[in-house]
Structure formats: structure tokens, C-alpha cells
Specification:
The chain is of the alpha/beta class and about 375 residues long. The chain is built from 16 helices and 13 strands. Bound molecules: ligand GMT.
């Protein structure tokens, strides 16, 4: 099959998921064409069957806002037409679903049918999408998609509650390559971060408000009072400075390291003992799943779809949003005893198998076949 994938190329979960999906499909023999404004971060090295098309957005003095969506739709048309794509799979509705609709309509005029699948990832519905600046276009373009998927039951329900959606939404959970994340820790790396065998706590995100990174610092502060420990912050974003300020105020800054955006998450996760995810909302929480696959238990909020990937009390613990006291107590409970910690690590790693890439990819392939058949039947 020749598949076009449109996504954000950044470290965000939707881009990571879309890139891993494309790579896995290519490995199975499909031809995958990525259409993005930058090389996706996880698309490194030469991979046979993968093609990359960069969206160029020419500037012009008239444009205070260069029309990215128009450039994207035109690039879609060009790539679909010249590479005879069978279908287009867009990740994150804004603005990918509406650009896909535009491309589809243009190609229809040339007698080319291109079914569109839209995968909803979270904030495209729950935060940005529902804003009235975008909502009518988001709702329209989702409804125009030939198939809609959501990464969790929670997100599917949120979508139905937010918009008048006239089609079924299939839930296809996000996935992880369990084998890839099952790594031995690099001892030298662990010693650099925790020279005296301290416990290592980890948080990775885009440091947006929704992640509540201050809660991560507060939890670490409590853990640090009773257990020798270090905290690693991976990623970057608007709330990083606030987290740094708070770590200085609470006098834990010497035991916290901000390592910025990192590509080798497997190696970082391999040295971690606990992953913290304190978000106000997560449609799914791919970062938590990757942690579990690496055998790292998770203490998180119980927001959104997190309850669909975690088993409270087994793979880690969940607390209410903002309940730093409970999440701190639970973190200490996991970390204070070696045997107990190992139990949580094993349980997290075992549970991640349910979301293994080899289980989820065939579900996407089945959907592609179904959508293609329907499209051919309509022709
Ligand atoms: O977490 C973010 O803000 C990034 C965002 C994205 O679109 O890249 O992540 C969303 O999609 C991920 C992949 O499906 C999910 O694992 C995240 O839970 C979801 N984020 C939110 O819902 C806030």
C-alpha cells in the first residue's frame, strides 16, 4: 500500500506515534510518504520504503501569517498525484484534517480518489480544537474524514461531547516497541547522574501548562526529604523556567538536572526508577507507556486516558490532579524498598506488552484495507 502520513515533526506524542507507525508500516513492505514541515525527530537514518516530503512555506511581505495550511494542502496534492498514494493518514486534526479535505477535493476534480483517515491525539480536541477560533473547521473536517480514530476511549468520548460527530470513532490505543525499550542501563551514565546510588526520578514532556511540571518538583521535594534521590527533566517548553525557579526556592536544584530535548529516550529510561506525569489532562500519555515498556513504574494523575494504560497499585499509582501529597506518598512507597521497586518495575514492563507495536499495527492495517475497499466500492 502507498500511504501518506501527515504529522507534527516535533517531540510531541502525536508526531512520535505517527513516525513510529510509518516506520513500522515501511518495515512491513508498505511505501510510506511523510509530509511535514521538518524531518520528524524520530525519522533518523535511511529507511527503505520511507519517503520524506518537506512542506515549503514561502514568505511574502504581505503575509503576517504565512498560509501554512494552503502550502500543506498543495504539497499533499503534489505528493498524492505524483506518487499514486492509496490513502492519507493525518495525525492531529489541526490543521491536518482540513488541509486533507482541501487536497481530497482538488484531486476529486482530476478523477483521483484519496481516502483520508484522521487520528485525534488529544489537545486537537480537548484544548485547542474546542476553542471557538478553530472549532467549526475542526468539526467539519473531522466529519469529512473517511475514518476517524482516537488514541483512547476517553478521547473518543471527549470528542463526541465536544463536537457533533456524525461518524463512528474507532479507538486504537497508542503503541510502543517493547523490544526497543527493553534496554540494559548504561552503568557509566547512571553513575554520572546518581554517583552514590541515589534513586532516579524522571519527567519528560513539552513543559506546557497542562503538564503541571511544578507538581513534579514538589513531589521530588517530598521524596528527596526521605530518600537520597535525583530528578531528571527531559524536554523543554514554556514552563521550564517556572520549574527551575521552584527547584531553587525549595532548595533541591542541586539534585535536579534539566537535560533538554533528547532523542535517545530508551537510554535515559533505562537508568530511571520512577516516571512522574502530573498532567491536568492526557488523552493517553505515550511518555508513560514508553516508561513502562522500559520497566519504569509511573506515578501519575488519573486524568483523561491515563487510567486506560495504568493499573493503579500495580504498574505505579495514580492520584487526583494537583494532589501532590498522595503522589509523593505513593512515590516513596514504590522507591523505599528494593524488592518492592523491582516488583513495580516488572509489573510495568509486563503490562506494556498489551500495547506492543506488533499488536497495534495490524489494527491500523485492517482499517486501511477497510477504508480502501469502501472507497473503491464508491468509485
Ligand atoms: O502532550 C502533548 O501536549 C503533546 C500531544 C501531541 O499531540 O503531540 O500529545 C497528545 O498526543 C499523545 C499521542 O497520542 C498522547 O499520548 C498525549 O496524551 C496527548 N496529550 C494530551 O492529551 C495533553
Amino acid at each position: 500500500m502507498r500511504i501518506g502520513i501527515v504529522c507534527y515533526p516535533t517531540f510531541g506524542g502525536s508526531g512520535v506515534l505517527a513516525t513510529e507507525l510509518g516506520k513500522a508500516l515501511a518495515q512491513k513492505g508498505h511505501h510510506v510518504h511523510f509530509i511535514t514541515y521538518q524531518q520528524p525527530v524520530r525519522l533518523n537514518g535511511f529507511i527503505p520504503n520511507i519517503f520524506y516530503h518537506e512542506v515549503q512555506v514561502p514568505t511574502y511581505p504581505l503575509f503576517d501569517y504565512p498560509p501554512y495550511e494552503t502550502a500543506l494542502a498543495s504539497t499533499m496534492v503534489d505528493v498524492i498525484r505524483n506518487n499514486h498514494l492509496d490513502l492519507l493518514h493525518v495525525h492531529y486534526a489541526i490543521p491536518h484534517a482540513s488541509a486533507a479535505y482541501m487536497a481530497k477535493k482538488i484531486l476529486e476534480g482530476e478523477g483521483i480518489r484519496i481516502p483520508v483517515i484522521t487520528t485525534l491525539h488529544g489537545t486537537d480536541i480537548t484544548l485547542v480544537g474546542r476553542d471557538k477560533t478553530y472549532a467549526p473547521v475542526v468539526a467539519f473536517s473531522i466529519n469529512q474524514s473517511d475514518a476517524i480514530t482516537a488514541v483512547s476511549h476517553n478521547l473518543r468520548d471527549e470528542t463526541f461531547n465536544t463536537f457533533k460527530i456524525e461518524k463512528p470513532i474507532q479507538v486504537i490505543h497508542n503503541f510502543v516497541d517493547v523490544e526497543r525499550f527493553h534496554r540494559k542501563p548504561i552503568d557509566a551514565f547512571r553513575r554520572v547522574i546518581a554517583p552514590n546510588g541515589e534513586r532516579i526520578l524522571l519527567h519528560a514532556s513539552n513543559f506546557r501548562k497542562i503538564k503541571r511540571v511544578q507538581d513534579v518538583v514538589r513531589i521530588f521535594h517530598e521524596v528527596h526529604k526521605v530518600l537520597p534521590s535525583k530528578l531528571l527533566f527531559v524536554g523543554d517548553g514554556p514552563e521550564r523556567a517556572t520549574a527551575e525557579d521552584l527547584s531553587r526556592q525549595l532548595n533541591v536544584c542541586d539534585d535536579i538536572r534539566f537535560v533538554g530535548k533528547q532523542e535517545q529516550m530508551e537510554d535515559i529510561l533505562a537508568i530511571a526508577d520512577l516516571f512522574l506525569l502530573t498532567s491536568e489532562y492526557e488523552s493517553f500519555g505515550l511518555a508513560a507507556l514508553e516508561a513502562m515498556a522500559a520497566g519504569v513504574p509511573v506515578v501519575s494523575t488519573n486524568a483523561g486516558g491515563l487510567g486506560e494504560i495504568m493499573i493503579d497499585g500495580v504498574t505505579g499509582f495514580m492520584g487526583n490532579v494537583g494532589d501532590v501529597v498522595t503522589m509523593s506518598r505513593r512515590s516513596i512507597e514504590i522507591l523505599q524498598d528494593d524488592t518492592r521497586l523491582q516488583g513495580f518495575k516488572d509489573a510495568a514492563a509486563n503490562h506494556a506488552h498489551q500495547f506492543d507495536i506488533h499488536t497495534i499495527i495490524p489494527i491500523y492495517e485492517a482499517l486501511y484495507n477497510e477504508v480502501l475497499e469502501e472507497s473503491l466500492a464508491k468509485a
